[in-house]
């Protein structure tokens, strides 16, 4: 009889699923906020001011949009990672380090619920 791979109990997985769902909800609302700021093209009333100030304003707006775009990309990746973690919860492989095959510590998973490697494996990468 083949020995079963170490995994978290269904009770533990339910706890992690709750954490992941909460993080996903917050991440999605943060992403919506970032996107609305990015899409927001309100005129800040610089039409009647000096051309120099308007140029600074437009440059600042461009930088702000680029920063928001980068934030949105990172947030989308975070949401995708959380969805993948949820998938691992459903197929009961959640919390198993992809490098060592050992369980990732519960404290680490509570803080970084989309982690796929243990601290031990992370340190080996350096």
UniProtKB/TrEMBL annotation:
Zinc fingers (dksA C4-type) by residue: 97-121
Highest rank taxon of the organism: Bacteria
Keyword Magnesium attached: no
InterPro entries from the UniProt entry: Znf_DskA_TraR
Pfam families, sorted: zf-dskA_traR
Alphabetical keyword list: Metal-binding, Zinc, Zinc-finger
Keyword Metal-binding part of the UniProt annotation: yes
Sample GO molecular function, one term: zinc ion binding
Domain Zinc finger DksA/TraR C4-type: 93-122
Protein name, per record: Transcriptional regulator, TraR/DksA family
Organism: Flavobacterium segetis
